Amino acid sequence: MIADLGPDRNPFGSGPATGLGHAVGVKVLLVEDDRRIAEPLIDGLRSQGHSVKWVTRGADALTDDGDGLVLLDLGLPDIDGTDVCRALRAADAGRPIIVITARGEEDDRVQGLDAGADDYLVKPFGFRELAARMRAVARRTPAETTEAASGARPGEVRPPAVRSLGRLVIDQGAHRVRVDGTEVLLTPKEFQLLAVLAEVPGQVVNRQVVFDAVWDSHTYGHTKTLDVHVASLRRKLGHPEWIETIRNVGLRLGPTA
Ligand code: CA
């Protein structure tokens, strides 16, 4: 939890770098005036392979000519963060923006999202949660860029991505899965688990990465929870061999043809 950091502790700088697909090595513009929050965040992001530019004022964010994902604090010393968000969004409809703020009231969340933020994190938050949200936003970005080019408004609901993998069809927007044309009813967690593996079919995804993408970092009993969901997902799909367990490494969505 970022707010609980003592002066010498940095829980984000250690451990293996985990990431998925598009969120690996992204450019990040961090707009945060509080050094105690910014510094561990920067260390954590860099340890995961991201490049970070840090500014402390809204004006600096608006004059920055870089691109990449924006992590934006709402309580800034010069310009209100929601105004910064609105201006960044107006300048680039496809740019990923995640608001990070101590304001937890519903009104503030709504304001941030209305101002064009893609997602919202309330301090204190776990670094894994941030990483998972960055991955989620990064996954959506290509579609949003395309939509922006065709004139859609920022924040509008996008048409769903339908992923067709042989006999398995995953409809991201509708949260529906079909096997051989027949719908398979999955729980939200089972669906997310499958969606994470289906992002990189044929590739092994580290168990911790899968876990972080599906559950929040405060969930305990990782191994058991993941195994239970993998087992039920295999059973429901009716093809246990599709989801392979690679011992000591992770999970892989194998051939589904
Ligand atoms: Ca602040």
How many DSSP E strands?
A: 12
Strand content: 15-25%
Distance between the termini: 44 Å
- Report the uncertain regions: 1-22, 143-160
3D structure, described in words:
The chain has 257 residues and is an alpha/beta fold. It folds into 2 domains: 21-138, Response regulator (Rossmann fold, 3-Layer(aba) Sandwich); 142-253, Orthogonal Bundle (Arc Repressor Mutant, subunit A), CATH 1.10.10. It has 8 helices and 12 strands. α6 (188-199) crosses α8. The protein is elongated and about 55 Å long. Calcium ion binds at residues 33-34, 73, 75-76.
Describe the structure concisely for a colleague.
By secondary structure, the chain is α/β, with parallel strands linked by helices. It contains 8 helices and 12 strands.
Keywords:
257 residues; alpha/beta; Rossmann fold; Arc Repressor Mutant, subunit A; five-stranded parallel β-sheet; 38% helix; elongated; binds calcium ion
Helix and strand arrangement:
Blueprint: E1 27-31, H1 35-47, E2 51-55, H2 58-63, E3 69-73, H3 81-91, E4 97-101, H4 106-114, E5 119-122, H5 127-149, E6 162-165, E7 168-171, E8 176-179, E9 182-184, H6 188-199, E10 204-206, H7 207-214, H8 222-237, E11 243-246, E12 250-253
Parallel strand pairs: 1-2, 1-3, 3-4, 4-5
Antiparallel strand pairs: 6-7, 7-8, 8-9, 10-12, 11-12
Helix pairs in contact: 6-7, 6-8
Bound molecules: calcium ion.
The site of calcium ion has 5 residues, from loops.
